[in-house]
Amino acid sequence: MNAIEPSPDRELQAARRAIDGALSRDRGRLHGLWSRWQSRPRDAAAREAFAQALAGSVSQREARAASVPEVSLDEALPIAREGERIVELIRRHPVVVIAGETGSGKTTQLPKLCLAAGRGVAGMIGCTQPRRIAARAVARRVAEELKTGVGDAVGYQVRFTDQVGDNTRVKFMTDGILLAEIASDRWLSAYDTIIVDEAHERSLNIDFLLGYLKQLLRKRRDLKVIVTSATIDTERFSRHFDDAPVISVEGRTYPVEVRYRPLEGEGEQQGERTVNDAIVAAVDEITRQDPRGDVLMFLPGEREIRDAHQALERRKYRETEVLPLYARLSAKDQDRVFNPGPKRRLVLATNVAETSLTVPRIRYVVDPGYARVKRYSPRQKLDRLHIEPVSQASANQRKGRCGRIAEGICYRLYAEADFQARAEFTDPEIRRSSLAGVILRMLQLGLGRIEDFPFLEPPDERAIADGWQQLAELGAVDKDRKLTTIGRQMARLPVDVKLARMLVAAQQHRCLREMIVIAAFLGIQDPRERPPEAREAADNAHATFADARSEFLGIVKLWDAYRQAHEDLTQSKLRDWCERHSRLLRMREWRELHRQLLLLCEELGGRWKQHRQPAATPRARHRRGGARAAMPPCPTRPTAPLKSSARPPTSRCTAR
């Protein structure tokens, strides 16, 4: 008898089930090939194309499964005691909420627990961090623990830096990077697991991600989501994901004593003091009782760090080094904080060290109780950075930074009554931000109305109305709240909506070169330094680029001068030039944002390519072998949204 051939329907159904054994990133393409074969079941070519693609993807997945890094947990960390339970929950549930106290080890050990649960084979384990400095530092730490190099089994991606390879299992990134990937891959198919770390910070990006992942889980049954938070309102996260299981992990902390040293002073110290006076007095007190203990101090921003740095340097403590820590610091200077030497350290940090990073060997914390918070003003249509008192939850997070290696002491430079009167939690960013950019992104992605989006906490109706009004005024939406041609162009430019509209108008009026310079300038903190102790000298240096017609033209003049200096000078001389006119690190950031916008405009094509760079000088042409001199191309393709203006334009700038 002749062999009975299987029916096409059975073969098709078996082939469709086999797709589950392929890499997650290939499943969309495989489903397309399968649908083509299904429409022509007798077509041998369609069947063979599907079979070859499936075999190749399954083979790659099997190779990844055979080369999983050896996982070992740090038994000294409290999360290791809950390791087996966490692994079991990850296998059984699509979403798990991990509530970990300071020092529990959740950030570094959770990716390894995911590997132990069999994740990271079909796709990568994506771990989001609120800050670039944290993504980079944690990736290095996890790579060391897995005995692999950064860019191999463990990689990271932040703006302008992409160290992720084909063999990467665990990828650390900022939440902005993951949001940018949604635009090109709605299914986030490169990942089989996503860890949203530090979710309690409730940034706008985190809230948007949590809402998007809730929708995505209904379509991707293979995806696992893990939400980690400090022990702050974890039940809200659980309810958001349909009563997902919550597991609490204790922190590895010794008792921490809290001492209140308010600025107005008490007893013999009665009288008003500045914050720097109080910081110096607290460090003096610590030095008298323990001249070797490392101290971590929290300050609102870089300027406050610089002022405190100078005040502490003048004290000339023996065998002590004063180290700053903030996001824009170079990687070399950041490493000095995380790799302590023999000297005592006084670390001056922004709130980047509050939860995202653990600074080693800290015995004392000095907390002035303030942070820089961005708030949107609907009346002025501007984001403003205010210095505000931190919440009780943030103050307790700061306190938890000491007491990791021995009993610690936290000095709060405010009264206990002041602490008790503060808000329990920090306002979520969605409650204090402009929503125009969020609405524009949702329209571009086809996610429906913002009013119906499953945010963790719904935004205020007035903020939603203001967002729609902004987009209408900018011409991004029509009267039916649909994207216009201008709106579609704006949505492809990952900058603040007002800056995007400026670029669209510049393209129409053929002044794109100048506007890219200005938009990149407005997207960073002002690089023109004006320190209090040298204001006159700074004003004289800045006057070189002043233009009576417009402050914007002065910005273009500064850019052209810097670009020429970048071409003509050596690195050391360029550094001297920047010290006379601006801050070098911020000029680099300006240059990088400018490069990214140039690439984005190139990708848009058409008239967007009609920007012109100034001709190179004869000297520069000679140095470059006769070719047109220009700054070297951006090393990576832009993937992260540019930040909205880190500092709002001045009122004079806005008026013009």
| CATH class group of the largest domain | Alpha Beta
Give the DSSP E fraction (strand runs of 2 or more residues). Answer: 5-15%
Q: Please summarize the sheet with the most strands.
A: 8 strands, mixed
Helical segment count:
25
Question: Percent range for helical residues?
Answer: 40-55%
Pairing-aware structural class of the strands and helices?
alpha/beta
Number of domains: 4
Query: Could you name the CATH topology of the largest domain?
Result: Rossmann fold
Shape: globular
Q: Could you tell me the number of beta strands? A: 16
**CATH H level of the largest domain: which superfamily?**
P-loop containing nucleotide triphosphate hydrolases
Low-confidence stretches: 612-656
Strand order, biggest sheet? 4-3-5-2-6-7-1-8
Label the CATH architecture of the largest domain.
Answer: 3-Layer(aba) Sandwich
End-to-end CA span: 89 Å
Task: Please state the CA-atom Rg, rounded to the nearest Å.
Answer: 27 Å
Q: What is the gist of this entry?
A:
The protein has 656 residues and is an alpha/beta fold.
